[in-house]
User: Fold these one by one.
Assistant:
Number 1:
Amino acid sequence: MPEFFEESEEEEDQLPDIEGEEVVMRMAPYPSGPLHIGNSRMVILNDEYVKRNDGKLILFFDDTIGSKEKKLQHYAYDMIKDGLDWLGVDYHEVYYKSDRMDIYYEYAEKILEKGEAYICECSAERLQKNRREGEECPHRSQSVEKNLKMWQAMLDGAYEEGEAVMRIKTDMQHPNPAFRDRVLFRICNREHPRVANKYHVWPLLEFSWAIDDHLLGMTHILRGKDLVMEDQMEEHIWDIFDWDAPEFLHYGMLRLKDVHLSKSEFQEKIRTGEMSGWNDPRTWSLQSLRRRGIQPEALRDFILGFGMSKTDIEVPASKLYAENRKMIDSKANRYFFVPEPVKITLEGDIELDEVEVPRHPDHEERGNRKIKTAREVLIPKKEWEEKQGEEIRLKNFCNIKLDGKKGVITGSGRRDLIKIQWLPEGLDAEVEMPDSTVVTGKVEKGMSSVSEEELIQFERFGFVKVQGKEPVFACYAHS
RNA sequence: GCUCCCGUGGUGUAGUCCGGCUAAUCAUAUCGGCCUCUCGAGCCGAUCACACGGGUUCGAAUCCCGUCGGGAGCACCA
């Protein structure tokens, strides 16, 4: 406990303080899949700020209908909560955008009445062209009455998808073309996982957020810098309603080296069977990290170490592994795992019985595990290939010189040789690697006393988290 | 192309707002050495950075201008 205190004290300097007596923040995941390591920055930062300021954190499912590419998934809601629980993120209230459609409609009407928005029947192409060229379309100058009528028609289903949208009036000469008369509502007939086909006019994020951030009394909004334009849009809408603006905080883009994260892509690969599910380590989902034995505290430290800078960063996954290793090294008991075993026969004088190996080199109190010694032993294929003709030590047993499938015993005293793991025989075992390939091999029989889900280290192989024991199946965390 | 953001060692990060206390912090990585019957952990040491060019100033990583480089947005996605 004192260590934890020290840690967080240190970490405190990494985040800039925020102003305000009361802090209310929200995190808004889009439920197209479970949270992955990329999303964890958003939730951890929110959680951290709220905890440090004794504030309130709202979990707000940003489940408007989305695009065809990013599909909402009914199971994602629970997986997101599951991930947050695991991460130790405490939220105090839960909301769903899909529950609040009537509220958005109400304010949509108000904004039309104020003459600050209009219903546009231009095609998407036309709309984009006008935006690029800064030209106003004829719909922009329609009367309020006409707009309200068309809006009602939208709600009544008189338009098909793409035939009409509600747009806000900004300034078609706005220096940022992207800002010009953005779309606030559009028609979509796709089925929603929570409210099915109840609605077919859906708000876009800038509008729904402008309304909810105000209604729910948000004091600070934390978002990636990919969403900075949304700040401006929200501020514009708040101005129209004469509402006070919360404070915005931004962080830069975070990428893992050599890792490409895309939920819609994973969704597709899972659908086609190319990935086994969201447990697949390649998804980097929080669930898959838990399965590998990554500690939530390690992930939190990893993320907090980046602070709040707007700099874009690319970090190797080994940085996360280093954090994790610190936390699990003393917990994880040691066992022998022989990947791709090759059987060799020992020749020469040796007394056969059993050897004792400590469960943990730094914790003798955990006792020893016993391994029977035998003439025929299994060693890893890698060393068998690389160390031919050389002298090596079978750890805690004896020294041998490799000669094909023979091991000529050269003594049993400890010597300064490379020491490898070995087994007389063993239980079948499989280890799933981070790239989802599987390494097969044998583990010592003592493994049968290991509990499921236990985090252990296979000596000279890496840390793994046990998933099952018949046969032994484990997920590789890192070296 | 347009709008905005960012540029400190291999990778991240502190310091930049309020210029001197910094011959620039910490972590990780790398390389040595010690220790250890694991290629794990631990301990000790070493290497390595203020993008560039001007300006302001007694003094600039810190302020100003310019250049270059990187990123994000420019969707009827979030």
Number 2:
Amino acid sequence: MHISRNSFNSTFIFVAMDTKGILSHITRHVTLTPEEREFFTSLLIPVNVKQGDFVEQSGEVTTNFIHVNSGCLMTYFTDPSANDHVIQFSTAGWWTADLHSLTQNQSSIYSTRALADSEIFMLPKIRLEELVDRYPIFERFFRIMFQNSLVTHQQRIVQAFSFTAEQRYEYFQQKYPQLEQFVPLKYIASYLGITPEFLSKIRRKRMEK
Amino acid sequence: MHISRNSFNSTFIFVAMDTKGILSHITRHVTLTPEEREFFTSLLIPVNVKQGDFVEQSGEVTTNFIHVNSGCLMTYFTDPSANDHVIQFSTAGWWTADLHSLTQNQSSIYSTRALADSEIFMLPKIRLEELVDRYPIFERFFRIMFQNSLVTHQQRIVQAFSFTAEQRYEYFQQKYPQLEQFVPLKYIASYLGITPEFLSKIRRKRMEK
DNA sequence: GAAAGGACTTGAACTAGATTAAGAAATCAT
DNA sequence: ATGATTTCTTAATCTAGTTCAAGTCCTTTC
């Protein structure tokens, strides 16, 4: 999979970064004391990535939860025939992580790359463990977050099996209207589980209507 | 969808039921004090259901988490064309719930029925809220359970888009070897996202090898 | 134990979507 | 600006999986 001309860049840029966004996403679900906020933000590692950079690479063991502060990431799976399948796009406010790799300490089958210049926070797994041990309110936050994520995942499974490609495309447009404007169509096709050629046909058919 | 000859049975049978199984599943992930065990089990509503009975029906608002103590349940989605799609089989030790209906108080799009006579525990949502408020260790338990469930859901999405029907069938046989022996093939086909006719063809092809 | 309904299979015709190959349009590097 | 690389589209051909229709076997019921 090739994005722009940028090659793999392992030199992350560390910077000061605004934590308002991430805190407001958390306090939408739980209430935090100033102490909890302070400790939480002290664990975050802010990183700037450029379009095309890898954030995680398949084959390596994942050690971080990732939160997108601005920009957009894409997580994809490369099958044995070397075909890529986009699993998720993550825009501002989203979390992403390979939970299997993270919890089982096994090498990941997913890669995550930046689709645009992005600001992200990395939260190391061991820091998260300290966090929830010390402040159980974060246990609740992640419980709620995973619970909501499960709803989305279940809907995607239902759709994969009961919707046509065209219906999945319509749903995608409704749910993520901003994404289509800057994500290359081939990645959208991959996310929908179809070829770029077939997405092209669907788009033409819909234009003609 | 029709299972055996049993008709809808809304008269659940309440009985004493062994809580060893459910407690051992929980203590695999977290350690409980005797007080926590006691309080937790006091919230559970044991129910016996017969093969074919509905446990939850689409169109109604879900109010319970469900844990299977013995037997087997099936959760399915009925699409606008009245075709059923099996989402999950739940055997002993599994939890099931429509999290969307449960958290948003909206009517469920899923139905859950017993594929065999089963013993289940129902945990009302409001009781769960009391539980996690009082004993945060259960917040952790459900966080871990949802986290693990997400891994499984993610794998199913990957497979839906990158495996052929035959590969999905092979994976299903490996992962749930006991299920094929008593679950009607048409439900397995539905779970795999194919027609019973096509599953038949796959099975024949594999027999000939 | 006959009849009836459901479960599973088989085969023929069909379709959603893949593959291959090529051209057009957009983007990027120098 | 120009050439090179990538993205998107179009069209022809092909295939995995569906639909429809019929037939067999098994289970349940009276």
